[in-house]
Amino acid sequence: MFQSFVAIGDSFTEGVGDELGDGRVRGWADLVALGLAAASAQRVTYANLAIRGRKLGPLIAEQLEPAIALAPQLISLNGGGNDIMRPRVTLESIADQLAEAARRVVAAGPHMLLLSGANPTHHLPAGRLIQKRGERLAALVRERYPRDGVTFVDNWADATLADIRYWSPDRMHMNALGHARVASNVLLALGCVVPTEWGVDEVAEAPAGERSRRTAAYYREYVLPWIGRRLTGRSSGDGREPKFAALTPVVPGPFISA
Description:
By secondary structure, this protein is of the alpha/beta class. The chain has a single domain, classed as SGNH hydrolase (Rossmann fold). The chain is 40% helix and 12% strand. It contains eight helices and six strands, in the order βααβαβαβαβαααβ. The protein has helices at 11-14, 28-39, 56-69, 91-108, 127-144, 176-189, 200-205, 216-232, and strands at 4-8, 45-48, 74-77, 111-116, 150-154, 244-249. α2 packs across α6, α3 packs parallel to α4 (91-108) and α4 (91-108) packs parallel to α5. The mean pLDDT is 89.
């Protein structure tokens, strides 16, 4: 069982969409750390270096070596989601960067957890284009990543996660239920028991939610600000620091659904 875990990535790994009552974000990586702690008789430590809005190149340049330097037993990486939403993207390059990052991690000693994001495209403008890119990227990553020392979790292929019940109001980020589902996928892939209090199976068995409608208010609140940041070269992560920059002991606690 892994006693130390470092997560790197963008908003998906930072936990955006899974906001707690005090304004902090939690997310699947925090929940995986809690799951590892619950399954272990020893102390588990955890760091999360993810910064929202990061494209894959800057993400790897800024976060990979600091993560390796912490010398954890497990490092997770998800990235490329912000890249595939840009007008032009080379999917082969993204897959190559992810595979090379995995090789660097394994060569340094930690086990590599490589995972794809969930598929939000049923609820987004230009969803069909993004879905094609996401499916192609997941396929390329499956072809390229090294098999030794790597666990790959393909959340994009989890059809349950496409349901609107798992997504926050902006429809680009998962809510607490979505993050819990991803954490469940990861823990199962790592051979860990999923805490029953998360209710992941019960939620998945409930009736699907109605397909969402994109109203004028939705475009004003979420789409136009996103376009504005792209046009001005800004990012939602500008000026942000990692929420857990150093390995910190995990304190087990109850799962509270937002």
